[in-house]
Write a structure and sequence with these properties.
An eight-stranded mixed sheet has the order 6-9-10-11-12-13-14-15, with helices on one face. Strands 3-2-1-4-5 form a five-stranded parallel sheet, sandwiched between helices. It has 25 helices and 16 strands. Helices cover 46% and strands 15% of the residues.
């Protein structure tokens, strides 16, 4: 991010009470500082009068607040960015940056007003809350301005969300400032808090500039053979250290009081991780400083290592340990799935080396853990693309005039053997719990017998996948029916499964007909591939999870007859072993010859339930289907319709609902009804 962060001012030497030297002196003092106020109209004289150099630096820094997105391309190339013309900047962008600058300067003006009162022994110096009342008014003005800016939607598609979020962040900063004021003593403490608030607003503007620059830069990236990567840009962190603290803090708040963190490549300077974990007593830290490649550097590296080890002892005591070793030797020392978090420094690495390190250290992180990386920025685009490529599987192409289900499954399993085995391993604990319970084993056998009776060809296809991947038939079948088998657990009702997953937004009128689906599976289900299949008379395309039947847990699928669908989890209260698993029914949908056949397939008895968005490209229509066992509801889509992970049209009194679905629907009701795809 551009700009140098100014040092927060310390005005203690100028906040001492000067005393009253007589009525004439007091009168002169009042007249003198009355001429200065308000400082927002007279910044330079107020700063000169207060005599605090840090205020001059802060004022100049706020004046230099960015007015546009940074040009990331030229920054990455080490060049100076040329300011874009006003024609190249959107009105929303211009207005938001100007608003941030105005707020920062207003806060600085209020802080200087207060400092001036205190320096001249004005009694109002003791009225801390009253003297910063203008900050409360700023919050109200900010709300009004942001509401007005929010209306500028279509012309600024793609930048609107980060602009509005930074407005909300600054509003939160103002509110936090006002909450702290009543507990502060008059003078120095309140002045420094005001200066820090002004500094924070200036930093928010610079973070937004960087974020928008990254946003534009990312949209130009392309993964070979895949198109644009999917990246989430976070603008709420003030620094990398802040991000580490936020991630660790989130894990602690979610109940993980004890955790193991490894830092791979302890830096020679700017040791962010140490400060980030210092305040979390449950974190056990292991740091690895890489041995230098050149023998001439060994002595110097050893000296820095001893300095770092002393810092570690002072900060963490016996909660931390530091090693000087090669990265491979260090990796060999950590067992698989032993760490809750791994922080890896990828700076200066080649794409191949980065991919190797990602794969290596990802295997050391527990399921549900976090792998963080340093060095993902525009100067090293190959590292970013490597991270995207590493999570993508190659496309699957299959063509057969015969409908040989075992051969199709065998081809799938052998093509994605490593991914199927990895995904099955990620579900290992859950599958063990299901298969080792007598109650669950009984349900499993009943479901298996019912599927062998009604859809034997699909059971054979799944067995082909297991054979090709060289994994257990039983365990792969259990993973395919994991949602249905989960009902056998006695704790299901008390602790329902977290279902914060997919969402669909639909609209089908005379101008537009579309369905937008958000595929939001767990990390344990990250292995996705695109399949292009001609199977007998059927021809279909699907985005699929490794180890599933095609179309089973499909993110999206369509066939040559013009039938398409997306899927959402929903949870009725129990499982009926006489019904079919949702993955098997959606596999059948791939071969539907038309709308009527697709309706018939969806309406089959389900072991549990499912939600289908069914599309017909030929007749240009969409319908939303909800199924719970043998109950089915169908809603033809006209006006905008939004579906989450709960029943919305079918009455299922004992359904399971997660907080995420409730919040998504609540948020939807706050927004205007969509009229277009934008």
């Amino acid at each position: 991010m551009g700009g140098v962060l100014p040092r927060v001012c310390h005005a203690a030497s100028l906040l001492v009470t000067r005393g009253v030297l007589g009525q004439t002196a007091a009168l002169n003092s009042v007249q003198q500082h009355a001429q200065l106020l308000p400082c927002a109209s007279n910044f330079q004289q107020c700063i000169t009068a207060c005599g605090v150099a840090e205020f001059q630096a802060l004022y100049e820094w706020l004046l230099a607040s960015p007015q546009q997105a940074e040009d990331v391309d030229v920054i990455a190339a080490g060049q100076a960015a040329d300011p874009r013309t006003s024609e190249q900047r959107t009105p929303l962008e211009l207005s938001t940056f100007q608003l941030l600058r105005d707020v920062g300067l207003s806060v600085l003006g209020s802080t200087l007003d207060y400092l001036t009162l205190c320096q001249h022994s004005d009694a109002r110096c003791g009225e801390v809350v009253e003297q910063f009342r203008s900050v409360q008014a700023m919050g109200q003005v900010l709300d009004e301005r942001m509401r007005s800016l929010a209306k500028e939607y279509l012309p600024e598609t793609g930048v609107r969300s980060p602009l509005l979020r930074v407005g909300h962040s600054v509003r939160s900063d103002l509110q936090a400032f006002l909450r702290q004021l009543p507990g502060l003593s008059a003078g120095l403490a309140a002045t420094e808090l005001g200066a820090r608030l002004a500094q924070t607003v200036g930093q928010r503007a610079r973070m937004l500039s960087w974020h928008l620059g990254m946003h534009a830069w990312v949209r130009g990236l392309r993964v070979p053979g895949r198109g644009a990567p999917v990246l989430i840009l976070h603008e709420e962190y003030m620094s990398f250290q802040d991000m580490i603290s936020a991630v660790v803090g989130t894990m602690v708040r979610n109940g993980q009081s004890q955790m193991a963190l490894v830092e791979v490549g302890v830096p020679l300077e700017d040791w962010y991780a140490l400060a980030a974990v210092r305040d979390f007593p449950g974190v056990q830290y292991a740091g690895i400083m890489a041995e230098p490649d050149q023998p001439s550097e060994i002595e110097g590296r050893a000296f820095i290592f001893e300095q770092r080890r002393a810092e570690l002892q002072t900060s963490l005591g016996d909660r931390g340990v530091l090693y000087l070793a090669s990265l491979q030797r260090a990796a060999d020392a950590f067992p698989s799935r032993s760490m809750d978090m791994a922080l890896v420094d990828f700076r200066g690495r080649s794409a191949d080396d980065a991919q190797e390190q990602m794969t290596l250290w990802e295997s050391k992180v527990k399921p549900g853990g976090v792998l963080l990386g340093v060095g993902f920025w525009p100067a090293s685009p190959e590292i970013i693309l490597t991270s995207e490529t590493a999570s993508l599987l190659p496309d699957f192409h299959f063509q057969s005039e015969e409908e040989d289900h075992h051969s199709l499954g065998l081809a799938l399993g052998s093509s994605y053997r490593a991914a199927v085995r990895a995904r099955l391993a990620s579900h290992e604990v859950a599958i063990d719990q299901l298969l080792n319970s007598s109650r669950c084993q009984q349900l499993f056998q009943e479901l298996l017998a019912n599927h062998e009776k009604h859809v034997p060809e699909l059971v054979e296809e799944l067995r082909g996948i297991a054979s090709g991947a060289n994994v257990s038939n039983e365990r792969l079948f259990a993973m395919s029916l994991q949602e249905e088998l989960a009902y056998c657990q006695e704790t299901l009702t008390a602790t329902p499964r977290i279902v914060d997953h997919c969402t669909d937004s639909m609209l089908c009128n005379s101008q537009y007909c579309f369905d937008a689906h958000n595929e939001d599976g767990d990390l344990a289900d990250k292995w996705l591939f695109a399949a292009f299949v001609q199977f007998g008379k059927s021809n279909f395309t699907v985005l699929n999870y490794a180890g599933d039947l095609l179309g089973g847990m499909s993110a999206f699928a369509f066939n040559k007859q013009g039938i398409a669908f997306s899927l959402n989890w929903v949870g009725p209260g129990d499982c009926d072993p006489a019904g079919l698993g949702r993955n098997f029914i959606s596999r059948q949908l791939l071969t539907a010859g038309g709308w009527d056949e697709a309706q018939r397939i969806i309406s089959q008895r389900h072991a549990a339930g499912h939600n289908y968005q069914l599309m017909d490209f030929k007749s240009r229509r969409i319908a939303n289907f909800e199924v719970a066992h043998d109950q089915v509801s169908e809603v033809a889509i006209g006006n905008a319709f939004f579906h989450v992970n709960q029943y919305q049209t079918l009455s299922v009194p004992d359904q399971m609902v997660g907080n995420s679905s409730l919040h998504r629907l609540a948020r939807l009701r706050m927004l205007p009804e969509p009229q277009t795809p934008q």
